[in-house]
Design a protein that fits this description.
247 residues; alpha/beta; Rossmann fold; five-stranded parallel beta sheet; 9 helices; 32% helix; elongated
Length: 247
C-alpha cells in the first residue's frame, strides 16, 4: 500500500530545510508532527524532599536541553545564585551551546563530550574530587548511574522534571499510513490514549532498540526500523520504505 501520510510523534523541527522537508518535497507526501509525550517541571519543594541542597554541589552534569532549563529554573525558585566557579559537564556540543542561554560561556568552566554519556566519563575522571549533581527526568537510562558509580565519583541524582503522556484524543478518528516513534514513552502514550488501537494497515516506524522492544512487547508489527548500517537516520529509513512501496 502506498504511503501518503505520516505522523511523527515529536515536535516539528525548527530548522529550515530539515530532512523531513526534503522527504515531503521529494515524495509529495503529508507529514504531521505531534509530540506524544511532553516534559513538566517538578516543583522546588519536591526537589527539597529529595534532600537536595544546591549549595552542596561543585559540578553539574547536563545530558539534555531539558536538564539545562530545569536546573536553572529550580535554582531560581530556590533563590540559589549559581556561583561562577560551578563546573558544567555537557553531554554534547548542542547541550553546551544551549547553556549560553543562562551563562556567559567564556567565563565558565564547561567541559563537553562528543555525543554519548560514556564519552563524557573521561572528562569527569579528571575531576574526581568534585561533588556532581545530575538533574534528570523521572526516566533515566540505567547506563548513566552505572557509569557514574563505576567511575567512583561523589554524585547525586535529582529529578527536576518528568515525562508526561500528552492528550491525543483529537486524533481518535484521524488515520495515518505511518506512525513514527522514537522512545518507549511514545509507544506507551499511543496505547494509553487509544487502548483499543488496532494496527491493521498502519505502518509502524521505530528508532532505537528500546523503542523496538516496547513496540514488540505491545504486540505491534514493526515495518520500518532505524538506525541500521544502511539507514542511520529515521528519514533515510522512511525514504527507503516509501521508495519501495510508492512505485
Amino acid at each position: 500500500m502506498k504511503v501518503k501520510t505520516i505522523l511523527v510523534s515529536q515536535p516539528e523541527p525548527k530548522v529550515e530545510n530539515s530532512p523531513y522537508s526534503r522527504l515531503i518535497e521529494k515524495e509529495k507526501i503529508k507529514v504531521d508532527f505531534r509530540p506524544f509525550i511532553h516534559v513538566e517541571g517538578v516543583e522546588a519543594k519536591n526537589v527539597r524532599q529529595q534532600k537536595i541542597d544546591l549549595n552542596n554541589f561543585t559540578a553539574i552534569i547536563l545530558t539534555s536541553r531539558n536538564s539545562v532549563d530545569h536546573f536553572f529554573r529550580i535554582a531560581e525558585e530556590m533563590r540559589f545564585k549559581v556561583p561562577d566557579t560551578m563546573k558544567y559537564f555537557c553531554q554534547s556540543e548542542a547541550v553546551a551551546y544551549y547553556l549560553q542561554k543562562y551563562v556567559v560561556y567564556r567565563k565558565r568552566k564547561i567541559y563537553v563530550g562528543k555525543r554519548t554519556f560514556n564519552e563524557l566519563i573521561p572528562l569527569m575522571k579528571k575531576y574526581k574530587d568534585e561533588k556532581f549533581l545530575l538533574p534528570s527526568s523521572d526516566q533515566l537510562k540505567p547506563a548513566v548511574p552505572e557509569a557514574l558509580n563505576e567511575l567512583g565519583v561523589d554524585w547525586k541524582r535529582g529529578i527536576f522534571y518528568k515525562t508526561v503522556i500528552s492528550d491525543l484524543s483529537d486524533l481518535r478518528n484521524v488515520y495515518y499510513d505511518i506512525l513514527v516513534f522514537f522512545s518507549p514513552s511514545g509507544i506507551e502514550s499511543l496505547l494509553k490514549n487509544f487502548p483499543d488501537f488496532e494496527q491493521n494497515n498502519t505502518r509502524i516506524a521505530v528508532f532505537g532498540n528500546s523503542t523496538v522492544k516496547a513496540a514488540t512487547d505491545a504486540g505491534l508489527r514493526i515495518d520500518i526500523q532505524a538506525p541500521t548500517p544502511e539507514t542511520p537516520s529515521m528519514t533515510m529509513a522512511l525514504q527507503k520504505y516509501i521508495t519501495s512501496v510508492n512505485k
